[in-house]
Amino acid sequence: MRWALVKVALAVTTMVVLAFAVPLGLVIKELARDRAFGNAERQAAAIGPTLSITTDRAALERAVASTQAGAAGRMAVHIPAPPAPPGGGAALEIGTGRAAGADLETVRRVPRASVAEVAGGSVLLQPTALGTGQIAVVEVFVPEGELTRGLATAWLVLAGVGVALVVGSVAVADRLGVRMVLPAQLLARAAHDLGEGRLGARVPEEGPAELRSAAVAFNSMADQVVQLLANERELAADLSHRLRTPLTVLRLNAASLGEGPAAEQTRAAVEQLEREVDTIIRTAREAKPQTTAAGPGAGCDVSEVVRERMAFWSALAEDEGRTVRLAGVERPVRVPVARPELAAALDALLGNVFRHTPEGTAFAVDVHNGDDAVIVLVSDAGPGIADPEAALARGNSGARDGSTGLGLDIVRRVAESTGGDVRIGRSVLGGTEVRVWLGLGVGRSGTAGRRTRRTRRRGATPA
Question: Which of 118, 304, 396, 400 is surrounded by the most beta carbons within 10 Å?
């Protein structure tokens, strides 16, 4: 917008300057020419009184020499020969004449001043009546330089004024553009910051009236977003806090189960559930996202977490007669994800297998380590998912066909925090395969995240 205003101001001012400067330059040229011939007319008129008194050569030569043009050799007096009855005589020429004889005869025949073009300039021919009734012609030569004297300076001044007007208009348009564009840029930057999660972004309410109104509306919207998020966090904390009462009952009941693998698993599950509820409450109160990108050196070992969670779920798999296969966890593989979050994602995937496949259905967990990504595959031999896209849709809570509940949303947020994502397909076992890409970079915008997405588009599987 800023440069558009500058271009418009430049074009308009240039057209205005040209519209006035060109005619004014031509007028100045005509004024210079009129000034030169006006001066010549005054000098020619100075000889008139002498011619009306006498035609004596000596007297006329003195009169011609007394003028500026005569002194410069640019004046001549043409006196025709007297009539024959008084005795006759020769025509009298005083000074250096440059006009053609035809032009002189034309002026005598039509006694009116005229201008004729000659070599090096122009001549003014001024007729003057003599006492004998004849017409003498006073010739004043006007050089070409006299016709254009001062014209170059005047045109230069005119061009300077035009350039100054153009530069001034461009400067004013640029300042106006800055006044309009800067608030718009601040508004765009604040909107981008708000979209990136920086909820403290606000816009100065300045600039033109329209942009001030937009800034006021944006700030009001940002305040409402902050308030809504605060209310949502409080609601999440309150709802999570309400779970503590039934959890207490579960813990007491689990304590009365006695000893045995099932009792130990139940008590461990209740303790984990209590920890998760406490984490949700703390996270909601502190207004921190549950899934954030881990910094360099942070994260956890995927292999260790997978072995630990498979050990937890293997007891239930044994009770239900499920065949379990685990591969790719022999060596450490670190990813930039917090250990509790990765464990929650694996529990969500494995819990889906137990909830949505019949007892006795085999499943497998494979970990593939690549240069820029780690892929965790959870596959089963169940009936599969009819609509994988619906299952992965945000906000799908199990109401639509093909849904696996909210567990996949947890998995997706963990994957996206590293620059990866989640895909559902058909497994080699004949059922569902959930493929989780975990980037080894620092987040969605990192280099590893971009390479991970390129790997996914090519269909390659890191080994």
Answer: 396
For Cα atoms 291, 295, 296, give the angle at the middle one, nearest 5 degrees. Answer: 145
By the 8 A CB rule, do 6 and 174 touch?
A: yes
Given a cut of 70, whether residue 310 has pLDDT beyond it is: yes
Q: How far is CA 67 from CA 29, 46, 63, 94, 129, in A?
A: 26, 8, 7, 13, 20
Mean of per-residue pLDDT scores for the chain: 79
Among 343, 347, 350, residue whose Cα is nearest residue 317? 350
- In this structure, what token pair is assigned to residue 395? 């906000």
Residues in contact with 40: Cβ distance below 8 Å, sequence separation at least 6, in sequence order? 69, 124, 140, 142
Q: Which residues contact 346 (CB under 8 A, 6 or more apart)?
A: 305, 306, 309, 376, 378
Inform me whether the pLDDT recorded for 77 exceeds 80: yes
Q: In 10 A of CB 454, how many CB atoms? A: 11
Per-residue DSSP letter, 438: E
Mean pLDDT of 208-221: 86
Q: Which residues pair with 368 in a beta bridge?
A: 375
User: How wide is the angle at C-alpha 171 spanned by C-alphas 166 and 177, nearest 5°?
Assistant: 125
Q: How far is it, in rounded angstroms, from Cα 140 to Cα 110?
A: 18
Q: Six-digit token pair at 462?
A: 């890191």
Query: What does the alpha-carbon distance between residue 291 and residue 287 come to, in Å, rounded to a whole number?
Result: 12
Average pLDDT estimate for 81-109? 77
Determine the average pLDDT of the residues in 345-371.
Answer: 89
| Residue 442 pLDDT grade (very low, low, confident, very high; cuts 50, 70, 90) | very low
SS3 at position 79:
strand
Q: pTM above the 0.90 mark?
A: no
**Residue ranges in 46-115 assigned as alpha helix (H):** 48-53, 57-65, 68-71, 101-109
Name the phi and psi angles at 3, rounded to 5.
-70, -30
